[in-house]
## 1
Amino acid sequence: MKKPTSSLLLIFITSISFFTNAQGQTIDQVIKPKESLAHFRFLASDELKGRDALRSEIDIAAKYIANQFWKYGAKELSNANGYFQPIPFRLSQPPQSALIQLDTSLLKHGDNLLMMDGGSLKGKFELKIAGYGLEENLKNIDLNGKILVTRVGAPGKTNPAEILELGRKKQQWAKGKGAIGLIEMYHLPNTPWGLLTNYLNKPRLTIAESFDQPSSIPYFWVKDLDGKLMHFIDQNKSVKAKISIESKGNQLIKGRNVIAKIEGTDAQLKNEFVMLSAHFDHLGVGRVDAEGDSIYNGARDNAVGTVALINAAQYFAQNPPKRSVLLCAWTAEEKGLLGSAYFAENPLIPLDQIIYNLNIDNGGYNNTEIITVVGLGRSTADPLIKEAINHYGLKTIPDPSPEQGLYDRSDNVNFAKKGIPAPTFSLGFTAFDEEIMKYYHQPADEVDSMDLEYVMKYWKSYLLTAQKIANMKEQPFWLPGDKYEAAGKSLYGY
Ligand SMILES: [Zn+2]
């Protein structure tokens, strides 16, 4: 291979910056401050009451985003419901009261008992122990009219996310075998009972199986750290549980992601999609702050990212890149990354056609000379990200506090797990310091406390980055050794 002469190199470098400059100028012509800020002020307004996925104002936000996608010329997906992907959510409410009497032990909700799910129930019921309550444990046992008693989690599955996911499955399996309830004995020392039950003992949103009204059997956790209760039941097979629950029951909530696409210009590459995503929900109305404000506007988190998607609809509809662009505004991120999780499991575009996910989400900023890209240093698209951000006179830094696990705490992770390279674009932060905490998940997170000139540069950097990646010659991929590299290879068949 011949080394390029310095003059060739110079031509090469100037041609890169020539393209970047031309694209940057087009972005300047299309994306105007007043128009973008009008979207921003609307989405972060008090009238939308903090865009809580459990409040009706979330529908106003969703419709607004859909209308902007339509106005600017982004298209509906043929397998969606207009610009929407409907999602069945289930809201589980803590019971008014729940008591279980087991011989001489009285178990009380909020104390040594936690009712996780299900409706009212009263009576005396037979108990049946079956290991961890996994499908193989339930094969040859009769659960009809009985309460299934199991250990929480499964061997090797002991972290909170795993045991919650597994618990919901056990509940379905038990119900399928005719059980009228499920008790999981909690014995895990690594997550304290008090911490976990405090977190869980409030209304919780999860993804439901379907849009049918949820019907589920009562499901409990019982504190049994030393295993004594489990042992007692095992030794006294005839003991019955006297149960009394007054429950508010569960509620079906209809949620929606907002989805649109812009077709690419290249006959081949248009079958590949660069997914641009941002969650549009926030925390709603809550605790009053020192100023008497109780509306969590979520300007930084994440109206600013939502406007980046609206700007992308406007810019790319007029300037489509070679690859197609998929615009995804997720609901219910703040309830546990639910909207993106639903799409990852029910994708409207096959996941192996989505070659990259440029997510945008924000806690806040403490430095207006940089943009922080959580996940920088993990894919082959990095040089393009830096080039685009550099065009606006800003520097790119990676996640400054990897110990916070931000990469695995935002919507991007639902796609990274599937193998799609998926960084998150964020306003410049160098640490989770006092300046960030002033606004992070606070009522003070409002448009007027932000540096709007910086916000304009931030929006434009996002567009230029997206454009470069959508025009990349090679498909971007994980750098060797990344923990999601194997998932990527299996997704794309490398
Ligand atoms: Zn966020």
## 2
Amino acid sequence: MTGPEAGAATLPTHAISTGDGRSFECGSTDTLLRAALRAGVAATYECNSGGCGTCKFTLTSGEMHQLDPDAAGLTPRDKRKGKMLACQSVPLTDCEVALQAGDAWFADQSTPGVRSGRVTRVRHLTHDLREMTLTAPGAAEFLPGQFAMLTVPGAPIHRGSPDGAPRGLERAYSMSNLPNDDGQWQFQIKRVPGGAVSGIVVDDLDIGDEVLIDGPYGHAHLKDSGRDIVVVAGGSGLAPMVSVVRGLAERADAVDRRIDFYYGGRTPVDMCAIEFVDEVRDRVARVELVEAVSMDDADDGWTGPRGFIHALIDHDTVDGLADRDIYIAGPPMMTDAVVRKLVLELGVSTDNIHYDRFF
Ligand SMILES: Cc1cc2nc3c(=O)[nH]c(=O)nc-3n(C[C@H](O)[C@H](O)[C@H](O)COP(=O)(O)OP(=O)(O)OC[C@H]3O[C@@H](n4cnc5c(N)ncnc54)[C@H](O)[C@@H]3O)c2cc1C
Ligand code: FES
């Protein structure tokens, strides 16, 4: 494999004004959301992938192209009201938009940028989960728990390129390592059956292949609160939780901190969190791992807990749960079930819960 498809050579840039006095430029290869973030406008978002609906906005004047007109983040009602998703919108003219955005840029975050990386290391963690390290020029600046948008060679051409230039589909993947000066970006990517991009990463990418990295993005990063933490990962959600745990273990107060690591998979062959827990064991006060399989197969040899991971989290199983920071990553159904249980049944404050749903 070689590199991702290149975009067109010279493409126009359009002026965007937000109607509240803010303005920025958006190129034809960028989305409204990303251009806003690159310009320091703290636009509201979560997944950057069209799934969550957090980045909805109204177009007041001008024309926008929709990368994925069927994106799940917009309901039929939203569409009737003329709402659009900033993460799926590319301006075709100068535009005025009513965009939800905070007053100040997220103080602790790096501005997202695009860089080209090469695959420098790969290893299989399980039958369908592969760790991939990319090396790119400059420092890898991100916060533990954040993600990047990757374009990999061989990805299907994006059906919605507004300028007709061939451009590969991008997907969001979370970094599993820590920020570093060596330009190393590490990911753990799970093959989704029939998936357009994940299968290429797990089965086809080779050392030396070129991958475009656009990031960092995401708000569910390790906070500086001084609290003990709980991390909950399901399936493909392992990477950001590994990064959060590694980040905590690096801190000066790590020796006083406790980590409870919950990992849910379908079958015993999906289990692989132990090496990441062992890695930090001698640097934190205490780390516990609870792994559960959701498939009910009496012949699979599993002697640990069975069922959905949210069922195992309780005040009895995590001491001081209400005073911990809780990080969650994985499929939306799992994430929503954990959040519901924490808030509605266990009385945990939403301020202590930080999550990314993997649409
Ligand atoms: C913020 C964020 C961070 C993410 N981080 C990671 C990560 O670190 N590692 C990782 O492996 N993935 C991660 N993902 C998921 C990833 O972006 C892709 O959605 C996933 O790899 C599937 O892409 P695909 O092109 O192979 O499948 P698609 O062609 O997009 O989808 C094929 C089918 O699979 C379903 N599907 C999509 N994603 C999933 C999923 N995660 N689990 C089950 N079914 C799914 C779709 O609904 C569709 O029906 C993250 C997603 C988000 C939004
Ligand atoms: S951030 Fe746009 S739909 Fe999730």
## 3
Amino acid sequence: MSDFFAGPRHNPSFEGLGYAHNRLDRDTEHRTEATLKDRMAHDRARFYLFDGDRLLVRVKPDRFDPLYCQKMASELGADMDRVILLGTDPVEDNAPRLAAPLLPERAAAYEEHADYQLETVRAVGLKDMLPADQLGAVAQARSLLNWHDTHQYCAKCGAKTHVALAGARRDCPSCEAVHFPRTDPVVIMLAIHRDAEGVERCLLARHTRFEDPMFSTLAGFMEQGETLEDAVRREIFEEAGVRIGAVRYLASQPWPFPSSLMLGCFAEALSTDLTLDDTELGEAHWYSREALKVMMERPVGSPEPHVPGGFSIAHWLIKEWAEADPA
Ligand SMILES: [Zn+2]
């Protein structure tokens, strides 16, 4: 066993990590065909409404309100035939939380509206428009509505499928296949090298899609039949040409664009020579903890080299390592 990740590390709280805090009780296991109707009729049922990737929020003097009762959801133009159940909210006396798309012909009314705004799920998160523990439910709703929207037909026989278990599944009446929502795992990892003297440095890269000098971790989709560890090793080698030994998982983050799960890891670099995939990476360097602490002080958007903000798991990987005691 490698002792590479041994040693004291502080306990991360990941406060502010986007979409990662979801307090709803999904209770998928106990749902029946009667559940949706029952939850929709609950007098404290509240609905999130979406136009594609955009959430409808009501602008209040002191906050944004993204939840509507059934009557209001109908009046605002919700497609009540496409409602799904997210779960129940234990903080609100187990009141049901549901989601529905807006009818396309009704969504246009909110483009320029005094009381309502359509905001992308990304903007809702980055602009801190909702409490952190509501953002997880919004991510869940956005991913699930997108999945229903793009899985109207059976992948096996092509027949029209229908919603089952209040939105937790789609069933095919023709061939009886059952279809469950997909989540696409993505590995995101901080490669760390320790030299012969015990000095550690980590690898950060500026992605070609970033205009700012923002330096972040490497990341990539997992492939079929691949372990988490092998995906980390493959991605770092493909993107930077670095060989990886041990891999340690830190934490995960739902990323609802449309349905990814970011799996944050540390990776032990066995080599330091860089061969960059220049379609993805503009530049990459090895950084000391001291250098990272300076970069972490700078805000996102700074003209000086900086790291991603606390909304992304990349930030927490960098912070956890930068603040760790290397002893
Ligand atoms: Zn079928």
## 4
Amino acid sequence: MMNKQPKIKRKEIALVGNPNSGKTTIFNALTGLRHKTANYPGVTVEKKEGILALPLSREQVTVIDLPGAYSLTPTSTDEEIVHEVLLGRVVGTPPPDLVVIIVDASNLERNLFFAGQVIETSTRAIMVLNMWDLALKNGLDIDLQQLSRRYGIPVVPAIGGQKGGMERLKVAIEKQLSLEPAKAKVSPENCHLPLPLEVKDMRGRIERFIKFMFKHNPHAAQGEALRLIGDSYFRSPLFREMGEQLKQVVIAVRKRLEHVRIDWSSVEAENRYEFIKAIYDQAVPTSEVKRVKTSDRIDRILTHPFWGLIFFGLMMAAIFQAIFSWANYPMEMISTCITKMSEWFGQILPDGQLKSLAIDGIMAGVGGIVIFLPQILFLFFFIALFEDSGYMARAAFLLDRIMRSVGLSGKSFIPLLSSFACAVPGIMATRTVEDKNDRLATILVVPLMSCSARLPVYTLMIAAFIPPAKILGIFDLKGVTLFSLYVLSVVAGLIAAWIFRKTILRKSLTPFILELPPYRIPQWRTVLHLMWDRAKVFLSRAGTIIFAFSIILWFLISYPRNPAVEQRFDSARVAASQTLQGDELAHRLSYIDAEQKGEEIRISFAGWIGRSIEPVIKPLGFTWEIGIGLVASFVARELMVSTLAILNHVEDKSGGESRELVQALQEQVSISSGKRVYTPLVAVSLMVFFLFACQCISTLAIVKRETNGWRWPLFMVAYMTTLAWVASFLVYQGGKILGFE
Ligand SMILES: Nc1nc2c(ncn2[C@@H]2O[C@H](COP(=O)(O)OP(=O)(O)OP(=O)(O)O)[C@@H](O)[C@H]2O)c(=O)[nH]1
Ligand SMILES: [Mg+2]
């Protein structure tokens, strides 16, 4: 039998604190990892782990980064994670050995509420006064020793963004971990909340009742008992698990307190704030707080109900303009490189199927997508500026009224906005939304927001079919079209949310509270990291899924072959050369070449697939050639562009140098009807289809995980695909009636 060695368990340190206090920044500084940070509350929504080697003993410990929380009474999914981890209620994991409380020093008084709750429930704790730079700037003179004495734990100042204070923090962590639990808090009595006798009594009654739920952390029961008293909406997971019995006990306690005229709903908050005030006045005695006025002054305009919205709209329009015009130069450079590489392959590879696969399949399919990297990077550059400057939270505040009118809250805005990058983090971000139905409605409309994978399809169609006109003399029609697509996706999302809230997901609204962080100059490191990460995701998709499917697509487009077709066209060539001469002959021959390629694609596997779905997509203005791309795009949206590139290459007889894709699309003629495959109207219809269709497997997987089942993801596919079809139908048929082509 194998001798089972007991695995040595690493000690665990959990980082907790209010949202946006810099937990992830410090986590990254301690572990050398690079998890996402940004200047708005609610960035981290799940538990993340990393490893830290202690400075003296070199012992390795696990560091856990957690979502932010305002209180240990959880109100949303992300706060619940904090509750469960800190109180040691996650199955199989005891509570952390040490809790590092990250406090925003520039906002000390408010942060101490949660900090106090955590200190009471943990055996070993350290308080980090992060944002020390801001505190100094605001003129706060915090007496660290006083604070440390009052709470009975070490207090360390830090400037997370600049890795300031990290060595000191590591030393403090090592020291705390080496102490016996009983000695870790110098004088635990100091931090005990003074409460009226009656309340203490009642707290004890509940504590005894729930104690068995906290086998790992008996410390935690007392604080939890107090919080249960004030938990008006019965949100604590304990109510779910212990059911009616616990509820009855708590209700009885509340009655008893009412009897002695104690307001049970605010008893903890009142006493805690009073307690904090006493400590605060002692630790920050003479400071004359110079509030940073700049943030307020900027906010007078940026959060103004009218001017704020105007500014928001203008800025968005400018961003799309920039994506279009600035990204052009690097895109042309990449395009030239790819052409050069194709030519090089053309020279070194012998003629034949392998050459065709390399050039017409892989280079065309993957290269066709890689060209769009600069646009993706520009989009993420602006998103990073948005997130790190503090504007994100303002935009949420600004649009709260609009969100509210469709039955969502301002909290849903951040998930929706993140989804312009990608729906997956957008869906994760809905964990901060408190109300269950509210959250579900948000999840359902998140994939309608136009994610970055749709961008290549839009910009290709726009480049080919939208004329380069100017609007109002400054805005380019191409940029405006792109902007309109994004506006359309938002409007559709809001309408869909409104419908869901009126029908399947009815519920009252919860109030919207979102802390506005101070404005900050975005850190170039954060911005570059985000862009770099996205570039990696984008390129690795191109190198894996797009690569593989380009090969498959090339195969489907090139096979099966029919010798009879070849013979037919060969005899047409012979006939032509007997009757025609010079230019006329050359013209005729190239026409026959094109016809032959078209026919070969038509009878290929891909052609068969395209033709079999043609009846469904014909009313939208799409021929079977587009149908091939549509089918491929359900695997990955970008494959639409790859398919077009491969089709264009395979169709092009010259092998190596193909026409520019844009030009090829403009000229492509359907061999079934002899008409152009793409017209401006078809292009718009196609973009609208892409806007609404649910073509992302990762999105469905994450929705399944977050909603615990297949019901909602299936519903999502159904409603989005229907919506896409109907919208394209209206665009195309309506456009035709109006006389467009
Ligand atoms: N000025 C200043 N900014 C900081 C400091 N530490 C972090 N920041 C910035 O504060 C913002 C929030 O940092 P995060 O690390 O994302 O905060 P968090 O606590 O993990 O936030 P959530 O995950 O949303 O709860 C980011 O913009 C950081 O760059 C600091 O010491 N000084
Ligand atoms: Mg975080």
